[in-house]
């Protein structure tokens, strides 16, 4: 696969992931973190970091709105549930394998 096609395929896969996560409002960020070590907020941080590397000024709220499909405060009010003690404990116990959200390839 040539470089241009690879980049287009990766961008399309990212858009599909974002769309899927926007549709799956039942999936909580803490569950994503506990299972996979990253969540919607991590994606927003990666997205912002890469935009900034390319000279596009973007704040964290703008990046989260792209990932969530709406302002984060709205998503949080509509869909975010309170984390259980078990979820919080698992989150803390897996902190060392959480994603590096500084971005950079």
Write the layout of secondary structure elements.
Layout: H1 3-23, H2 29-36, H3 40-53, H4 60-68, H5 72-79, H6 85-93
Helix pairs in contact: 2-6, 3-4
Features:
globular, 66% helix, 105 residues, SMc04008-like fold, mainly alpha, single chain
Can you walk through the features of this model?
It contains six helices and no strands. It is mostly helical and 105 residues long. It has one domain (3-93): SMc04008-like (SMc04008-like fold, Orthogonal Bundle), CATH 1.10.3340. The protein starts with a helix and ends in a 12-residue tail after the last helix.
Strands, count: 0
Number of helices: 6
Q: What is the CATH third-level topology name?
A: SMc04008-like fold
CATH H-tier superfamily: SMc04008-like
Shape label: globular
* CATH A-level architecture: Orthogonal Bundle
CATH class: Mainly Alpha
Structural class: mainly alpha
Task: Supply Rg.
Answer: 15 Å
* Strand content bin: under 5%
Note the main sheet.
Answer: none
Instruction: Give the SSE order as H and E letters.
Output: HHHHHH
Indicate the percent of residues in helices.
Answer: 55-70%
Intertermini distance: 19 Å
* Overall number of domains: 1
Regions with pLDDT < 50 over 5+ consecutive residues?
Answer: none
Mean pLDDT rating: 95
């Amino acid at each position: 696969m040539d470089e241009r096609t690879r980049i287009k395929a990766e961008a399309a896969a990212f858009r599909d992931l974002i769309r899927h996560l926007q549709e799956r409002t039942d999936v909580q960020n803490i569950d994503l973190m506990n299972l996979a070590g990253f969540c919607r907020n991590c994606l927003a941080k990666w997205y912002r970091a890469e935009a900034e590397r390319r000279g596009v000024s973007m704040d964290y709220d703008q990046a989260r709105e792209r990932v969530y499909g709406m302002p984060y405060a709205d998503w949080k009010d509509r869909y975010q549930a309170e984390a259980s003690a078990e979820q919080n404990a698992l989150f803390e116990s897996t902190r060392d394998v959480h994603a590096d959200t500084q971005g950079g390839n």
